[in-house]
Amino acid sequence: MRDQALSVLLIWVFCLCVCCDRAQGGEPLRSPCLCGATNWSRVSAGGFSALMPMRPNSSVKTNHTEAGPAVVRTLKTQVSSAVTFAILHHSFPANSLETDRGQSFVRGLKATLGADGRLRSESVVRLGRYPGRQWRIEKSQGQTIITMRSYVVGDTLYQAVCVMAKDKVCQRHVAEFLDSCRLRIQ
User: Fold this and answer.
1) pLDDT tens for residues 102-155?
2) What are the E-state strand segments in the chain?
């Protein structure tokens, strides 16, 4: 009898420890974050998908290059004037050289850095079997933080970009967004 009462007590304590931080729907309660991102759902741009807050705006831009048209598809959510999430799908022109594609990481980093950007960290990442880079960049005299991942897959460059004011950076949402990236072609 004593062992049975002890077992019931242990199960009750376990339930309290595990369940007290959960909402009625079974999801863990999370403290409000600085970035304000809510209503996350999976969105896709050209076989590249990620979880994004709210409903993103979609755009397509064609850049005419010497090698041919380069098409950029963008899905962007601007949570506030200080917080933006975006995924981009860049199609290289059919006539572009393989070496041009290999330089995509360097060109992408230089374009993002611009004149006032400072590279704070860089790491090699993978999305399945595809190589990529992750960068953390400060812009606007350190007041804006850009965290992005880029992947080159054949004739396509995929990017996931988080832009946040320094005082609104939410590492949890940055990580959840970047880690949610998927490729349909894997």
Assistant:
1) 677 888 888 889 899 999 999 999 998 888 999 999 999 999 999 999 998 888
2) 40-45, 48-53, 57-65, 68-80, 83-91, 118-127, 130-139, 144-153, 156-165, 182-183
Domain that holds residue 22: 1-30
Query: Is 76 in the same domain as 124?
Result: yes
Domain CATH for 126: 3.40.1000.10
Same domain, 102 and 159: yes
Q: What is the pLDDT of residue 100?
A: 60
Say yes or no: 98 and 176 in one domain.
yes
Place of tokens 């899905």: 75
Verify that 12 and 62 share a domain, yes or no: no
Dihedrals phi, psi of 77, to nearest 5 degrees: -120, 120
Bridge partners of 149?
A: 134, 160
Task: Give the Cα separation of 128 and 47 in Å (integer).
Answer: 14
Distance in angstroms (rounded) separating the CA atoms of residues 50 and 33: 20
Amino acid type, 53: P
- Do 59 and 9 lie in one domain? The reply is no
Between the CA of residue 10 and those of 22, 24, 28, what are the distances in Å? Answer: 19, 22, 22
Look up the pTM and report it: 0.77
For residues 124 and 167, state if they share a domain: yes
